Amino acid sequence: MMAMVQILDVMEKALEGKPMSETDFQLRRFAPKVLEKVREHNVRYDPESPIHQFDSAADELFDAGLELLVDVGAYCTSTGRVISFTEEEVRGALKRAPSKLHFGEGVDRKSLVARKPEDVRPPWCLLGAGGGPCSSDRAFTTLVEGYAEIPETNAITTPAITRVGGMRIRPSSPLEILGAQRNAVLGREACNRVGRQGIPLMNTLATAESDIALAAALHPKFGLRQSDGYMICCMDPMKTDFARLNKVTSVLSLGGAIGMCFGTMLGGYAGSPEGTAVSNVAHHLMGILTYQASWLLPFPLHLRHVCSSTRDMLWVISATGQAVTRNTHLLTINLNYTAAGPTTPMCLYETTAAVTAAVVSGMSIESVGVATNRYEDRTTPVEPRISAEVGHAVAGMKRLDANNLAKALLKKYENRLKEPPLGKTLFECWDADRRRPTKEYTQVVKRYKRDMADLGLELKPETS
Amino acid sequence: MSSDKVLKDLREAVLGCNPEAAARAAKAAVKEGVDPLAAIEKGLAPSIKEVGERFERMELYLPELMLAGEAMKSALKVLLPLIPKQKKVSKATVVIGTVQGDVHEIGKNIVASLLMANGFDVVDLGVDVKTQSFVEEAKRSSARIIGASALMSSTIGSQKDIIDYLSATGARKKHAVLIGGGPTTEDWRKEIGADGWGRTAVDGVRLAGKFSR
User: Fold this and answer.
1) Which pTM was predicted?
2) Which chain B residue shows the shortest CA-CA distance from A169?
3) With a cut of 0.85, is the ipTM above it?
4) Using CA atoms, how far apart are residues A340 and A419, in angstroms rounded to an integer?
């Protein structure tokens, strides 16, 4: 029987691992080792192939990521020590990781299953705002109702509440606790209002950055269920702390399914596209060990453009996806960010490209952080709906065809990434009373769908 | 060893992102009688500027940028004590950190490194920095500028707290407050009364230049 790493083992490692400064871990341990693994495994990004094409190279990338975790470990900033894992522990955790999980209740109870590259099965569609900021309870419920009404929605990723009682939330304060509780209550209520009582919330809880806020919102009276998904972030690169491990311990005690989310930055500590892909793979493995994660949520981002739709980011997503899904049965869900905002065709092209990269590479999708997820209320239910329609349409597509599609899409927006159009805000382009986009936005979507048909991707007809 | 060789070694140590070599080269410069100010202006400054520009073009990445910054710091540690106080070598002092309750440091580290590359004296307070710590350190180091980074929508409120604290203590006019980070926007800057908002690290450096005058 292979060694099984549990939360007490993680704590033991965090308390007794090699002491090291955070700077040394990042600059002198992690960064050079990433370069070494890229070189040793000949990991190469080809700008002509934004969608990664080769199985053998994907397998090398996986080996590079696994070796990176074993050589470097994770880092606990609370103790200033390295949390090391042996290869045996990594392989044991991979073996034990689930290949299928159930989320939701009643008729909305569905299965998240492991996919493979070019898999014909549609991706799990975790749809919504990806924790983007929203200004009011009205905006929050309008958005979540809209997400819940998308036919392809398997689970919801809510926005984050930024104000309580007219006051801006402060971290680890009563305001954050009340915001997190409101996040749970309103999220569930919005689903109830549109008749999807059983649908799971899977970014539980976007408003709770601190451990105390999450723990305080876990009480059943706020409506969270064991069948929801519990997302806990680590810090780039491969760092955690007691606050995050507190969240892990609290959720484990409730029997909740933890998804570790991680935003490896292209241009950050892992450096190049190749290094970012290696790091992204290693984070998957770190998640199942350090956080006991049963599902993973990568959201790699471009340091300069803060989105996932650049040419090199599409490659990072697709290469990582193929490396992980070819070599494991992990449940991995890629979250994408666009640079452009609602009502712009560019936003829809961007999410189409990123979702295609993930889905043909065996991943499921969380979609979408709109306009870099920076602006309050600059998101609508349209963008995740389009992502889901694309996700279903490209399931089973060959990687070569996906590469041609991605290149055609990049031609449409690549030169605008530096100054992307921000489009409109929620209530400027979404009719909350009629639960549909404005006529202007509907026309934009129709034109986009005609463009996509011209590129060979037939999407569902736009009805309104 | 000629002074040209010493300056070349200083440049190469920074471009090579090597703090130990930079300290060695700085000591060699002192031993050779090279004017410390010239060693900084002709040896260190052009190379750290080049590193910053290459980072902007994404020809090199964050680890190189930060290690080059460390190399610069190691050399300055040797050279600065030898320069008379009246000969000012930095543009201004910037106190920088990630706000209370927020432990994200990448954006803050990039801005800090680029500021250093552009001749600012940087006091990096790290992450999860209390409001009072920003203000007290700015006072202690006579910093003209406070840079406050926040990555979460639940933590940007702490940027407002810094400004409110400065106002309440009568120190608002002494320091320009620049903000940045994931969920921050120009609208947020206006709402809280910050002096500048940087969408990118380069914006941050440009604003620091503007407010250091």
Assistant:
1) 0.95
2) B154
3) yes
4) 9
